[in-house]
Amino acid sequence: EGNFLNKISYIEDKNLYAYCNEIRNFDIIKKKIELEKENLAYCIEIKDRIYGYEIKDIEPLNEIYGFNFFVVNFSFKNISHSFNEEEDAVIKKLILNLRQQIEEKQGYYIIKIPSFNNMLINQINLLEENLLFAGGTVCYYITDSSEKHYEQDELVIKLATKADKIKYHDEIIYLSEASFKNFFGQYHISYITRHKAHLIYKNWAKKYVENYDENNLFIATQGEKIVGFIAFDKTEYSYEIVLNCVDENYRGLKIYERMLNKCINYCLIDRKLITVSTQLDNIFPQRTWIKNGFKPYNTFYLFHYNNL
Question: What is the reported pTM?
């Protein structure tokens, strides 16, 4: 247990990280970093430790904004959980290299910083100009659940069929756009991406509605009207709930909790783990997750670096 807390291996894969947290063993992450270190944009190897990062294109955002979007993902193998001068100096070298690579390639960069890594936060703070703080994310997972029974009413919650996706296509997309209009996520916090932030969620919903071959959407209907949905992805280690919303005119009816309960009981038949994440300050869904047995396992900060 002491060793688990003192040495940390981290990769930007929420679902694999959740699985390793659950089994209290990070060997899969260590092996993955070893195997994929050649693909990193930059990597420092000292004894059994690895510090590295990759830079990836974000195509859907390139299309919405008309300029280059990149995400910076860090990988760390066997690094210390505690702040220390030696590793802080190594991470300084990592961040100076990152700065150089960013300056050479024009674009808008999203940098994900695991919140346990104080040395990384320290060095990112030293980048000062062009850096925008864009909030934080908290991640939860669940490994078992039981179906809850709610009072009978007109609400119907079910897995969306191809016919449902065709029938409710426009309503689902409209619902997602309306729901996220007042939501203040990382793309709203940044004054550079704010004007088109609502389109990100609209396009995201579209992806799930127009994928007719996958079971990836739970819908809640009242009569002929869509009042909420939950979209999810199947990954190697889990199902990940990625997008959900409820019509604000139908709030207070436990629609989200009821959809969530159906969704997790469906997903847990096939997978041992379900993950979900949101902004740190988005308290109400987190209360519902905790009430349904989810537990937190990771938090990270989001910084945007503007080199347009």
Answer: 0.89
